[in-house]
Write a structure and sequence with these properties.
alpha/beta
Length: about 350
């Protein structure tokens, strides 16, 4: 164990993409005592699948799973007994206006609850999984890093706002004496539930889409994200945030890499904004008639057309860390998805 780490580890969001892989990494050490929070049995079975994909179900059984709600302060308080290390990976991710209020509550209020309880119970170190959505932009459009100043504009997504304010709760707790580290991952790719968050990219591209949006973004493998989190928590580093990105790629490139893994045609037709808006309206009608959530929203379209770029120089220099090429992360994940679909 490192400089700070002595005692029980609590992981919130244990059933999500980052949480599942983090728990797999942490539980590989038999000396770790781990408590993980989950919302429902369905999410628990999804996490179990991640462990099963690497033949690590025996590790899954060593975790103390507790049902908890981040918005229920007192039930959360019960789970903090004996906890000395906290990894806060729980979050709601949505680009639908309908989910904005609930997302703000979970991401901001839930983070405040966990940070406050960590102070109260004398937690030794707290790691918060934020997002590059909480970063600002440089006027010259050079790659965003830890020093860019976040500013709210008419195009700022509700998710971005929620993660920025959640970070503020963590920094406040840090000022009050809680040792913290924050990671800001770009779009995370890896094996998990491909109907949720960033994994939906793999599901869509696996079908062989002909159309692609003209934007670009940063991408990082989930295994690198959890490796960095663990390294930071086992170091004496605190009071800092770190951008995590393996590569900055166009959506055409990333969709092409996924399509290749499934033997599908590469995307070749660039979508313009007019066509994209029409597709969004048609999707909204489909969602209304079927009673499901729309796949395309105003916020998701804005992301698809933006040229985004991020720098991971800070974490590379601080930990001498080298990220896995994103093609390898995609290959590993798609190999398991193909096996499941066969």
């Amino acid at each position: 164990m490192g400089y700070y780490l002595h005692g029980m580890i609590l992981v919130s969001g244990g059933t999500g993409l980052v949480g599942s892989h983090l728990l797999m990494e942490l539980s590989s050490d038999p000396n770790n005592s781990i408590r993980a929070l989950y919302r429902n049995k369905e999410s628990l079975s999804k996490c179990k699948k991640v462990f099963a994909s690497e033949n690590k179900l025996s590790q899954f059984k060593t975790i103390d799973w507790q049902k908890a709600d981040l918005l229920d302060y007192f039930s959360l308080k019960d789970q903090m007994q004996g906890v000395k290390i906290v990894y806060h990976a729980a979050a709601t991710v949505s680009f639908s206006a309908k989910d904005a209020e609930q997302m703000m509550r979970v991401n901001v209020e839930g983070t405040a609850h966990l940070a406050n309880l960590s102070l109260e119970y004398g937690v030794q170190k707290f790691c918060f999984v934020s997002s590059v959505a909480a970063l600002g932009e440089y006027p010259d459009k050079s790659c965003s890093d830890e020093d860019t100043i976040w500013q709210k504009t008419t195009e700022t997504s509700n998710y971005s706002i929620s993660k920025y304010y959640a970070e503020n709760e963590v920094w406040r707790a840090n000022q009050e004496g809680l040792p913290v580290v924050i990671v800001n991952p770009a779009t995370i790719l890896g094996y998990g539930d491909w109907t949720e968050s960033s994994s939906t990219i793999i599901k869509k591209a696996s079908k062989g889409l002909l159309f692609y949006p003209p934007g670009s973004n940063g991408f990082v493998g989930v295994k690198d994200v959890v490796k960095v989190m663990k390294l930071l928590m086992e170091s004496e580093i605190e009071g800092e945030r770190f951008v995590l990105v393996s590569e900055n790629l166009s959506f055409q490139s990333i969709m092409g890499l996924i399509a290749q893994q499934f033997g599908k045609k590469l995307p070749s037709i660039k979508v313009n904004k007019k066509a994209a808006k029409l597709m969004m309206y048609l999707d909204q009608i489909r969602a209304l008639l079927s009673g499901t959530k729309p796949m395309l929203t105003r916020e998701s379209l804005q992301t698809a057309f933006k040229q985004k770029c991020y720098s991971a120089a800070h974490i590379k220099n601080k930990l001498n860390f080298e990220f896995e090429p994103i093609e390898e992360s995609i290959e590993q994940a798609c190999k398991i998805y193909r096996k499941e679909s066969a």
